[in-house]
Amino acid sequence: MSRVRFVHALVGLAAAARAISLAWLHPLNWDEIEYRRATAWVWNGLVPYRDFWEHHTPLQWFVFAPIAAFAHGPGVSAIVALRFGQTIVWAIAFVLLSAWMRDAGIGRFARAAAILIALCSSMFMLAAVEYRVDALACALLVTAILLAQRGTLFWSGISLALAGLANLRLGPLLVVALIAFAIQRRDRVLQLAGGVAAALAISAAYFAITGSVAIAWQRLIVDNYLADHFARRVPGIFLHRMSMPFGATLSGFALSAIDPATIVMLIVGVVGMVHAFVRRQPQFSVIAVIQIANIFFVAMMKFVQTYHFETFFILMIPFVAMEIDRLQTGNAIVGALALLVAFSLAVSVFRGKEDDFQYQDLIMRDVDRLTPVNGTVFDGAGWALNRKPAYRYWFLREIVHVLEENGRFEPYRVDPTNPPAALISDYGARVWLATHPDLRRYFMSHYLPYWRDLWLPGMSAVISPGSRATWTVPADGDYAIYASTSLTAHPWFRGDPTAFTRLGYGKAVRLKRGEPYTMASNDARPIGVFIVPVGLNELFRQPPPGVDIDAAPPPHWHVPQIW
């Protein structure tokens, strides 16, 4: 019993370390911003697909909408609140999984130890602390497995259907689980099918009542199918993801990339799956079949992210627990668990990226502060939580790229009389502008970086001798004009937004949005021109070295400064 209490204490310690990470040290992922915006829109009464573009199934947004109701700030805190709300879902999933393992004959120590190992896995937890559709889908899948074990097949069927409504990507896996449960409990197939039909009927009724059946079918089925059809496969990406815990990276072997808990989960879990078949343990064999299908479907994806393995880790926990329960070396296991927790604690706290997190918060708050409430923002992920997106297909990821490229989505075109109030130059926006040169030229001439990654209305050009430049004014206001021959050497005119610039005093003019404004030059040399809103005396402001809005640079060991 003392060993069980000790392992429970280690579980609490590992969970606390991850809580510190999700609250202060782990930067936002683009997907979290996407899901938060959809959640807030649902709370505000918008109907998915009909009133805003999306390509994921919507259950997560409805479940978490009440949290978005009070977590409505412009910065990262709005998403951190959803992260903490989601920890409850993960806790429920672990409790239900523990109940399944208990009913399958696994002891308390082994159950707690297996869950602890999962909590120590960076490959699992770095994605699990993020606000994602995977958490709710995993919890519902575990619920379905537990209910099937206990013979309540109707509710198991409902849980399977709801898991698909939480995460469409699990659809093929859920079909395999449905078939496996039906074979295992042939006497209750009709109950299982009735549960699935009931959940789907209620979902269909919602779409019918809201008049969104056709558009939901288009976004969820047709668009996702076409995007997968047009997308290019990344060779070897599945094996790359699987080899990362062993220290293999794209740039070679990296000792800091080794993830001991994930290695334990992989090796011990696979051994447990083999033993489940060899020893003919029916309950574990069903889970093993579902897990094999899960691995197969992930491996078949054209591009694989680490969060695609969250279901893999959840389904692997029972097999790890089974092997721990079989061993009689409890003290040795306790020592190994303590080492895993120590390593996990160090990684969670001392490899954080709080600087990126704080920079993301700064940009999100500044775009809210510096743009009008009714303004729109063009970016790649929806960072401006309280502003409307400028582009209908506002989440600029692979699905939007391939469908726009193949003529399925209309391209984004700026309305010169009502342009965006800002551009956030994240990865998605930069890629989009690189592949749409006309749009890039417009933004480069009609916007100026206040921060490197936050561009506000402001005009610029290099005017040759005897020529002129004409802009369509992007926003109402008073502007200061800075023009000189020395400005022609500014890196901005070579496409470089990284040269911090402090401005002096310029000639002031009042301009109105949508009207043309022309400047001519009779100078014998080219002149550079910046037309900047009055009050913005600093441009091209830079975050600290190595800090990025997309949190792209790899983490490094350091003492965190969460204050």
Task: Describe the structure concisely for a colleague.
Helices cover 55% and strands 11% of the residues. The chain has 563 residues and is of the alpha+beta class.
Poorly predicted regions are none
> How many domain regions?
2
Head-to-tail CA distance between termini: 39 Å
Spatially, the strands of the biggest sheet line up as 4-3-5-7-6
Overall average pLDDT: 95
Structural class: alpha+beta
Q: Give the strand content.
A: 5-15%
Number of E strands = 15
Q: What is Rg? A: 27 Å
Could you explain the architecture of this structure?
The chain has 20 helices and 15 strands. It has 563 residues and is an alpha+beta fold. It folds into two domains: 336 residues, no CATH class; 169 residues, no CATH class. It has a five-stranded mixed sheet with strand order 4-3-5-7-6. Strands 8-14-10-12 form a four-stranded antiparallel sheet. Strands 1-2 form a two-stranded antiparallel sheet.
